[in-house]
Every structure is written in C-alpha cells, then in structure tokens.
Amino acid sequence: MVSFDEQKLLAASERIYGRRGEIEAMADDACSHGISNILFSSSGGSQAMLDPFAYLIRAYSGLPVRSVLSAELVLTGCSMLDSKTLAIMSSKSGDTPETVAAARWLKERGCCIFSIVGKPESPLEELSDYCFVYGEGRPQELVAYIFLGRILQKLGSFDRYDAFADELSSLGPALNSVRRQFDDRAIEYCRLYHAEPYHIWVASGDLWPVCYAYAMCVLEESQWIRTKSVSSPEFFHGTFELLESGVPLTLLVGEGPCRPLDERVKRFAQTYTDKLTVIDAATFELPGISDEFRPLLGPVIMNAALQRISKNMEHVTGHPLDYRRYYRKVEY
C-alpha cells in the first residue's frame, strides 16, 4: 500500500484518545456554564469536518444547532446567538483568516468557543475558551465525537455515551482495517478514472459534507480534477441530466436514515452510466465497533476509505497532494 504507515496512524489515533479525560473535562466545564444552542463555524474542509456533527446533535437531542461558514458569519450574523451559545470551530493551521475573524466576532458577542486546532499557540487557540491541539493526532473527528458526545450525555440526551466512548478506543485499528479493505478498489478507481475530464460525486445525510469536502478539497484543490458534488436528494433536480454513458459517478452510501436516498441514485445511475462506483459504509468490517454505533461513525469510515483514493491518485497522476498554485501562494 502506497503512503500507508499503519503504526503512525495507530499512534495518531491513540494520541487523541489518550486525552479523552481532558476533552471530557472541557465538555463538563462548558456544560456547567449552560448551553442554549450550538454553532459550527469554520472554513473549507474544516467546516465540512464539523458539519456531520450537526446530524449527531439532532439525532440525540432537541438542542438548536446551526452551521455557518466563518466568512459569511461576520457579514450576515446569526439570530440564534446569545451568551450561552457554544461555538465549535476548527483550523489545521489555527490561523485561517476567515475563521480567526469569526472567532473574534463571536467573542465580542459573548459566545463560548471550543476549537480543534492542529498547531499550538495559534490565533484561534488564543481566542478560544477551550482548545484541543491535536498536533500529529488523527482523525480530528475523534475530538468532536468525545467532546460533543459528553455534552449530550451531560444534557441527558445520550445515556449510551460511555459505551460509545469506550468503543472509540478501537477507532484507530478499525479505520486502518477500512483502509486495507478498500485499497485494491482505490487502486483500480484511480487507474480507470484519473484522467476523466468530469466527475459527479453524490452522497446524503452526514456523508454529504464528506462528499462535498472530498470533491472540493481533494479532487479539485489537491488534484485539479473537475468535479461536481451534489446531494442525493438534489441529484434529481438538475445534475442527473448530465449523466450518460462514459460519465463517472461516485456514490457514497451511508448506514443512517438517508440511505434510501442514496439507493435511489444508485438505481438510476446503474441504468444510465457505465462508470458507476458505489462506496458503501455498510460493507466495511469494523473490528471493535458494535452495530449499535456504526451509523454514528459513517463520516470517519468513509474518509478512511477515500484516503486510499487520495494516496493512490497522487501516485498515479504524479501530482503531489500538497501542491498548490494559489492557496496561500498569492493574494486573493
């Protein structure tokens, strides 16, 4: 397997899980001050990483939750904000200009901020009431699962949190298993489709942010592959008119309540294109993870599989994943 350091990935996951108590303590303290609603606000892939957790909150509680991109937040505002708003933010660098500006804007309005940051001593960390610096830890979602799961438990909405969090100790090995299970398919996918001029990517529910981010931040930004991402329910209100023989469509299928929407797209695509790829979260074995909690982990399961497309695509195209023409290179 190209670019696959199993032990490094395991250590990264263990590095975060080993600080479970620290994350839970921050959640407990946030709850002690009261939480009236939750706002997710960041930029790009960091926002997409957070967005699936809005589905988690809605599934387990009636707590109001909203997602607003940071660049929009400072211009449009958010009517639900008050002194007990908990804002969840993320930035790999900790200095993303739009995210930092939104954090400053939120602090001026008395909101509490919990941030997930890759580098220590960043502007975002300085503006946050609570900050978890993951450094070389992965996946970042593990931080959010623990922090938000604990909050839901403290609010009386997730009485199975302890069992769920205990199983998260197996997340690292489980995700490595997913990577191994999918690698052969990823190699073939890259061989067949790396030079295609146009791709359609489709998903729904908590996998829609994964689909959107992968199309934009990996295929477009990192590989310069023209890609249209569309949600499963919206596919039939526009994009499906562009599907025909020879057009590759990649469908991400989840295990949650939106699965019938994905299956509808699958049935249609099987008829009208000969280049359909279905990646179904339900097909992966997850050692150490029970059936009860599998549906909650769809985003990290799918991201682990897609990582193998990324690594193999880089290998096939010769285009490094970290090469950019414009991002942080020119004024924009």
Q: How would you describe the shape?
A: globular
The CATH superfamily name of the largest domain is Glucose-6-phosphate isomerase like protein, domain 1
Helix content: 40-55%
Strand order across the largest sheet: 2-1-3-4-5
State the name of the first-level CATH class of the largest domain: Alpha Beta
Structural class by helix and strand composition: alpha/beta
Alpha plus pi helix count = 14
In the residues, how many domains can be counted?
2
Tell me the fraction of residues in β-strands, as a range.
5-15%
What's the oligomerization state?
A: single chain
Remind me, CATH topology of the largest domain? Rossmann fold
CATH architecture of the largest domain: 3-Layer(aba) Sandwich
What is the succession of H and E elements? Answer: HHEHHEHEHEHEHHHEHEHEHEH
Biggest β-sheet description: 5 strands, parallel
Rg, Cα atoms, Å:
20 Å
Number of strands: 9
Distance between the termini: 37 Å
Uncertain stretches = none
Structure description:
The chain has two domains: 154 residues, 3-Layer(aba) Sandwich (Rossmann fold); 147 residues, 3-Layer(aba) Sandwich (Rossmann fold), CATH 3.40.50.10490. Strands 2-1-3-4-5 form a five-stranded parallel sheet, sandwiched between helices. Strands 7-6-8-9 form a four-stranded parallel sheet, with helices on both faces. By secondary structure, it is an alpha/beta fold. The chain contains 14 helices and nine strands. 48% of the residues lie in helices and 13% in strands.
